TrEMBL record:
Signal peptide: none annotated. It comes from Aspergillus lucknowensis. The lineage of its organism: Eukaryota, Fungi, Dikarya, Ascomycota, Pezizomycotina. It comes from the Eukaryota. Residues 35-412 form the FAD dependent oxidoreductase domain. Pfam families: DAO. Coiled coil: none annotated. InterPro entries: FAD-dep_OxRdtase (IPR006076), FAD/NAD-bd_sf (IPR036188). This is FAD dependent oxidoreductase.
């Protein structure tokens, strides 16, 4: 059986200032009956809970079950980067899914940054949200050339909205990006955030409006079939709950509860770090968030925070060749040892003017992503399981995908909307066909993660 979250996970920077709901249980015992059970309290679970209560005078009863602490999964351990893919994968998606589908995905991703900004402003969420621009700088000559050709073709086709994308190729790239040896650079609107604070605020709002949050409560099983009254039985070590509706927000651990997602949503371990700079060393301002591309699928990505520290993830060149370090791995209590030293000196190696910055690694942690075998998230009704819905499998790229996908699921629940009326790209829909496919693009060598 597919594994569950391990105890004693590494401590990410984001979880160094804990919220009072971190290990919260709204009621001492588990309720026996609830309208809706949300499993997982990461960004997906919290956003679902938020929308179920938002502006709802007659909300259903909702319980959120979380195996560990609130926001202790991927969301609490990520790079904080909210970066829509508005150009990079678009040519590939056009070939595979057609123009409409590819353009839909790019539009949907781009709209999320503004949606998160609007949410943060509306709800006055203190989460260090910054609206900025992302810069993709490519160091590898073959990748820079291939990306150049693909982008030029995309521009010429006129199908995608590239108004917000600035592109420099060749001699100007290093100067414009500040990245040593950059052969090309793209910039476009993006954001960054303290993800834990965003999620805990959403959970707090839901709890204030009546949601029951139960942390340290692992779901061990969902009944194979519905009970005679149509409800599902959700089993935990603390008792069982009968519910009309289950929302799976379980990311890389989904297959443990829903075995049909075995080999479809695969746990993939990633590594992240925080780098600090001595206060007495002035360093060049980093105007963007960055992805530094070393080759196909090989990259580092970083954000510079308002406190002057830098959150950096990636380090793939150091460990990607050894699949046992990352593929089907759910242990985030251990670091990826070959990658740990990668962050030392990274700023000095990468950025012009940072050579004498004194930047040093402050902290390193790991986290478990849910990568899908076709790199598309699963959103919507679980095939063959009436009243079970899923929001999972963001392939290391959930921050610019989750909020509006959660809103869409709640629109389906509250207003009875059909999937196609929600604005979620059709290729994100959880379908029988996707579950039946035996293709695995992660291992097929086509992996081109987006960050
Ligand atoms: C190291 C790292 C860096 C990343 N960097 C970025 C980035 O910069 N930008 C970006 O867009 N994305 C990034 N990602 C990916 C991003 O974090 C995820 O796509 C997103 O957070 C997924 O949110 P989620 O709510 O679906 O999953 P999670 O945050 O993982 O939440 C799922 C929750 O479900 C709980 N759960 C699972 N099974 C059970 C069960 N049986 N019972 C009860 N609870 C259960 C888990 O404990 C967990 O808390 C990164 C991920 C990692 C690991």
């Amino acid at each position: 059986m597919s594994p569950t979250p391990v105890p004693n996970s590494t401590t990410p920077f984001w979880r160094t200032e804990l919220h009072e709901l971190d290990s919260h249980r709204t009621t001492p015992d588990l309720p026996a009956n609830y309208d809706i059970v949300i499993i997982g309290a990461g960004f997906a679970g919290a956003a679902l809970a938020y929308y179920l209560y938002d502006d709802n005078p007659f909300p259903p009863s909702v319980v959120i079950l979380e195996a560990r602490e609130a926001c202790s999964g991927a969301t609490g351990r990520n790079g904080g980067h909210m970066k829509p893919d508005v150009y990079y994968q678009v040519p590939k998606y056009i070939k595979r899914y057609g123009v409409k589908a590819a353009v839909d995905v790019a539009r949907f991703e781009a709209s999320q940054v503004q949606a998160v900004k609007a949410l943060v402003e509306k709800e006055k969420i203190d989460c260090d949200f910054v609206l900025t621009r992302a810069c993709d700088a490519t160091l590898d000559a073959d990748l820079a050339r291939d990306t150049h050709h693909a982008f030029t073709e995309l521009q010429n086709s006129g199908v995608a909205n590239l108004k917000d994308v600035f592109y420099a190729y060749g001699k100007d790239a290093e100067q414009l990006s500040g990245v040593k040896g950059a052969l090309s650079c793209f910039t476009f609107t993006a954001g960054h955030v303290w993800p834990y604070k965003l999620v805990l605020h959403l959970l707090q709002m839901a709890v204030n409006k009546g949601a029951n949050l139960q942390t340290h409560t692992q779901v061990t099983r969902i009944s194979d079939t519905a009970l005679p009254d149509g409800r599902w039985l959700v089993e935990t070590e603390r008792g069982s709950i009968k519910t009309k509706k289950i929302l799976l927000a379980t990311n890389g651990y989904t297959a443990h509860l829903a075995p049909q997602f075995q080999d479809k949503i695969i746990p993939v371990r990633g590594i992240c770090s925080r780098i600090t700079v001595p206060k007495d060393r002035p360093v060049p301002f980093l105007p963007y968030t960055y992805s530094i591309r070393h080759g196909v699928g090989m990259y580092d990505y970083l954000i510079s925070r308002p406190d002057g520290s830098i959150i950096v993830g990636g380090a793939k060149p150091k460990f990607w060749h050894d699949r046992s370090q990352w593929y089907n791995v759910t242990d985030d209590s251990k670091l990826i040892e070959p990658a740990v030293s990668h962050f030392d000196g990274l700023m000095q190696r990468t950025f012009r003017g940072w050579e004498t910055s004194g930047a040093r690694t402050d902290r390193v942690w790991t986290g478990i992503m849910g990568w899908t075998s076709d790199f598309m998230p699963y959103v919507g009704e679980v095939p063959g399981k009436p009243n079970q819905m899923i929001l999972a499998g963001f392939s290391g790229h959930g921050m610019p995908l989750i909020l509006l996908s959660a809103k869409a699921i709640v629109q389906m629940i509250r207003q009875g909307s059909k999937f196609e009326e929600t604005g979620v790209p059709e290729i994100f829909r959880a379908t029988e066909e996707r579950l039946k496919s035996t293709k695995n693009e992660i291992l097929g060598g086509h992996s081109q993660p987006k960050l």
